Amino acid sequence: MSSNKKENDKDKGHHTPVSIPKAEWDSSMLELAQSQFLKAAALMDLDENIRDRLLFPQRTMIVSFPCRLDEYSDVETVFGYRVQHVLTMGPTKGGIRYHEDVNLGEVSALAMWMTWKCSLMHLPFGGAKGGVRINPQKMSRPELQRLTRRYAMEINNMIGPDKDIPAPDMGTNAQVMAWIMDTYSQQVGYAVPEVVTGKPVVLGGSHGREEATGRGLVYLIKEAADHLNIDLNKSTAVIQGYGNVGRHATHFLDELGASIIGISDVSCALYNSKGLNLHEVNDWLEKNSVLQGFPNADEISNQELLELECDVLAPCALQNQITADNAPYIKCKILAEGANGPTSLEADGILADKGIFVLPDILGNAGGVTVSYFEWVQNTQEFSWTLEKVNNHLHKILVHAFQRTLVRSQRDKIDMRTAALIEGISRVAEAKLLRGVFP
Description:
Blueprint: H1 3-11, H2 28-43, H3 48-54, E1 59-68, E2 75-84, E3 92-98, H4 104-120, E4 126-132, H5 141-154, E5 164-168, H6 174-188, H7 212-227, E6 236-240, H8 244-255, E7 259-264, E8 269-271, H9 278-288, E9 298-300, H10 302-306, E10 312-315, E11 334-336, H11 345-353, E12 357-359, H12 361-364, H13 367-381, H14 387-412, H15 416-435
Parallel strand pairs: 3-4, 3-5, 6-7, 6-10, 10-11, 11-12
Antiparallel strand pairs: 1-2, 2-4, 7-8, 8-9
Helix pairs in contact: 2-4, 2-15, 4-15, 5-6, 7-8, 7-13, 7-14, 13-14, 14-15
């Protein structure tokens, strides 16, 4: 291939050098997940054999495979992952993310959090996660389909409706799940809708799945507000990240009467002390794709957004957003984590000292996997639920988990994150002890 040809492909976002991390396990996310787990394990005096066993995933798969680009002669090698943290509780469950920074450590951390999340919700799953290290924004739809189908073939023996059930995550959506379902179904010779969740409704997806994480987060914000005697109808809210989770959370908070004074996406953050008009914001996004340039608000930095004075702050973007550096300047009453791992361990202590009520990620964003469980149940029973039934069951499960976590937090005088972790870890530990060791 000529150098000019390579330059042209580089301009299109193709043929970037293959990125091979020096240490796949070297991940700040995995360090955070393990540190949180070890803190909870020490407080609950967890059996050291179980503690050591749960520090790392039970099964991991790393695959590398070719992806043919739209220019037929161009082929890229990409890396993919699938991790199953715990097989004790039943099939494993967890999303698939497409992002250029995906590595084994990150996926393992997400699988670990998914284990605690499923256990906290009393779902019959262990935690899993998957990912492919690519930038989906630089790929065409045909390229994404070819990549997805090849990735699905590479992990085909690891997934299955009774083994491991993928779902959407960052960079993936219902269409990606439809491609995975079809690829798996082609291999077995008949349709298997229950092999994935978060797929289109016409293929067996559940009503309410797309908005489930954002809706669930707001259900929990309402419970926390009631506990703290905060009237959401007179409250202010800031949402970092206006993707799937953040956008729906913003919409449901607005419905409850909260004034949305700040939001952000990859382009910028917006602030309006009198409250943003979400209809105007969404119309702007329809035409311009990003928030930058929106006329009826001030553009501020991500740091300034997080430090706005408000009643509810919901980080719904990336991990490691609230750290020891900026935690002293956080001025919210409720920190509702829609993202995975947005708050560092050091920041947790600072927020606790400030009296900020934290809805931890394994509780706050559990609405997605809960409705994914409903979808799996509907597929296995071949019976579809109404949206009302989905939302009623979601509310019941989340509120029950919130109340159990709150009771433990108050009784043991520990923060909500540690209480939620102990709730989740305890059930996994009990199940492991009951099943014993083979052989």
